[in-house]
Amino acid sequence: QVQLVESGGGSVQAGGSLRLSCVASGYTYYSDYCMGWFRQAPGKEREGVTGIDRDDNTWYAESVRGRFTISKDNAKNTVYLQMRDLKPEDTAMYYCAADLCWRLVQGPDEVRNWGQGTQVTVSS
């Protein structure tokens, strides 16, 4: 059973940075598995932010491209989300996810493994 535990959220002012971490357990890096980050703002649907596959290929939502960077440390079973130049519209609960790559790309309804979430709040 896959368990995902996020950390690193917090409150920052616009223009600031945060780094989120997600430690995975009970998880094996299958060739077709990916890890990623989703977020959900109050009153809005959960949306995909970024993902990374076994070969470190990545993808990003257009709204975060150039500001956010996903990376992973296979030895530590950890995926990171470095967020820079944060904006108030980045305020949301951020969730780590792990599943077959096509499921992460398809959207949150297809993802089967979630962390508990970590809150990111950006003030103007």
Explain what this protein looks like in three dimensions:
By secondary structure, the chain is mainly beta. Helices cover 5% and strands 50% of the residues. The protein has 1 helix and 10 strands. The chain has one helix at residues 101-106, and strands spanning 3-7, 10-13, 18-25, 33-40, 47-53, 58-60, 68-73, 78-83, 92-100, 118-123. The strands form 2 sheets. The protein has a 6-stranded mixed β-sheet with strand order 2-10-9-4-5-6. A 4-stranded antiparallel β-sheet has the order 1-3-8-7, with no helix packed on it. Strand 7 (68-73) and strand 8 form a beta hairpin. The protein is globular and about 40 Å long. The model has no long low-confidence stretch (mean pLDDT 94).
Structural class: mainly beta
Helix count equals 1
How much is the average pLDDT?
94
Low-confidence stretches: none
Gross morphology is globular
Cα-to-Cα separation, first versus last residue? 40 Å
Q: Tell me the fraction of residues in β-strands, as a range.
A: over 45%
Summary tags:
6-stranded mixed beta sheet; mainly beta; 4-stranded antiparallel beta sheet; single chain; 124 residues
